Amino acid sequence: AVFFKGGAIGFRGRLRGDRDQFLRAARDGLRCLPLLKHSRQLAPDNKDVLFGQGLYDYFADVMPRKYPVIRHIAWLLVRGDRERGLQRLQEAASNGQYARTEAQFLLAQIYRLFEDDPQRALTYLVVLRQAYPENALFHRYTARTLAEAGSWNHAVPLCREVIEHARAGRVGYHLRAQVEAQFYLGKSAFLRRELTDAEVYLASADSLSLMLGPDMRRQSVRKYATMANLYLGMTRDELGQRDSALSRYARVRQLPDYGDSHKWARKFQ
């Protein structure tokens, strides 16, 4: 009971962090730590407890340095330790009973988003894909990470599968997943100089994003819409369609700025 209560509060803190409710997330982190410590005392061999402790250790150390706004509340936190956090998470990922899968996925997210090491992230995603081949989230996350790592020969087939599953209405393969997959297929085609295919995929990503309605407020969808329009402008410039390219660069500047997209759009205009 102590273990599950600590885990519930810890997961709520993680959710609040994802929602940028950093003060409430910090409070949940502080509330769950004593419960996890007590749980470890009651069951010293419980490797699942290391998941919560590792999660706290890592993010309490890393987040205040990555996000300046959190520095104002860092004094509330028990000091974290990035290396110890990673070690504890790796132990939970290898030997946990309940938290093994979650620890593996969290490590994949950490290495992709915080450690800038997509290859290390893929070591965990490969395991998750093999264990849960029908899991849409692991499927999409693996395709995304392969694309970001430049492993296009492996990413492209997975992106095509995402689109096929979404069109078939399979659970977890929604319109947002199609936007992402179409963008990566378009980017891959652009890099291979297959410009006609690139134009089709990128235009599809943009048009699908316009169909999302309230979902368009999601940061990830806006990012793909922005980058799809930037690459579509570049593609149409390469095809000699200058007026159409200019309209795409103008659209980029109306969308949120990602990866210096506004700077590049101004340069290409």
Strand content: under 5%
Distance N to C terminus: 61 Å
Content-based structural category: mainly alpha
Counting H and I runs of at least 4 residues, what is the number of helices?
13
Rg on CA atoms, Å: 21 Å
What do these coordinates show?
With 269 residues, the chain is mainly alpha-helical. 75% of the residues lie in helices and 0% in strands. The model has no long low-confidence stretch (mean pLDDT 90).
Outline of the structure:
The protein has 269 residues and is mainly alpha-helical. It has 13 helices and no strands. Helix 5 (100-113) runs antiparallel to helix 6 (118-131), helix 6 runs antiparallel to helix 7 and helix 10 (195-210) runs antiparallel to helix 11.
